[in-house]
From TrEMBL:
SUPFAM superfamilies: (Trans)glycosidases (SSF51445). PROSITE patterns: GH84. One of its GO terms (molecular function) is beta-N-acetylglucosaminidase activity. One of its GO terms (biological process) is glycoprotein metabolic process. Residues 1-150 form the GH84 domain. It comes from Anhinga anhinga (Anhinga). This is OGA GlcNAcase. It holds the Pfam family NAGidase.
Length: 204
């Protein structure tokens, strides 16, 4: 019925999106969801070019970065993806995902994400460790990164000032660029306090 996989997927996604009344959040994960899956590159992928042209503007498109598990994300890559998809991508960040190797748990700080990414993003989702309690540091340091990014955006665009001010009371360094080491130390401090609080409860 369809001349290509991309046109088939876009047609189905558009129909579902419209049938649901065009919700404010509607996410589409493409078959080529990172650079390493694109042929020959994101900007020259016929599949992604078709999706960019055919998907309705309100549909968000998920992207994981250069690879399925990306050690780094750059503004340059996101600009390339935005150009081909005709919309800012939603990053599905697999930095901490361990479902492919449950012998490993990732406890380091959120890192490898260049400063100034937020203007290039429509959203960011974190795929965490399968073990719930192991995600304190990943989520806490992501929060520190987000506050720094939001603060940078507020300086560049006054529309973010109100939200940035509201987050300014949150614990964490507020000046300068994001430091993974500082974010890690803050997260460890808060995690120890949380562990001690849990341990002091009766019956624990």
């Amino acid at each position: 019925v369809f001349p290509s996989l991309a046109q088939a997927q876009a047609s189905v996604a558009n129909e579902v999106y419209q049938e649901l009344g065009q919700p404010s959040v509607f996410l589409f994960c493409p078959t080529e969801y990172c650079s390493s899956l694109c042929s020959p590159s994101p900007s020259q992928s016929c599949y992604l070019l078709t999706l960019g042209q055919e998907l309705l503007p309100g549909i968000g498109v998920i992207w994981t970065g250069p690879k399925v598990v990306s050690q780094e994300l750059s503004a340059t890559l996101l600009e390339e993806v935005e150009g081909v998809l005709q919309r800012r991508p939603i990053i599905w960040d697999n930095l901490y995902a361990n479902d492919y190797d449950c012998r490993r748990v990732f406890l380091g700080p959120y890192t490898g994400r260049a400063p100034g990414l937020m203007p290039r993003l429509h959203g960011l989702l974190l795929n965490p460790n399968c073990e719930l309690q192991a995600n304190f540091i990943p989520i806490h340091t992501l929060g520190s990164w987000f506050r720094r990014e939001l603060g940078s955006c507020a300086h560049a665009d006054h529309t973010g000032t109100e939200t940035a001010a509201a987050l300014g009371d949150s614990r964490g360094p507020q000046e300068g660029s994001y430091s993974p080491q500082e974010a890690l130390e803050l997260a460890l401090h808060d995690w120890v306090a949380e562990i001690n609080q849990q341990a002091s409860k009766p019956g624990r």
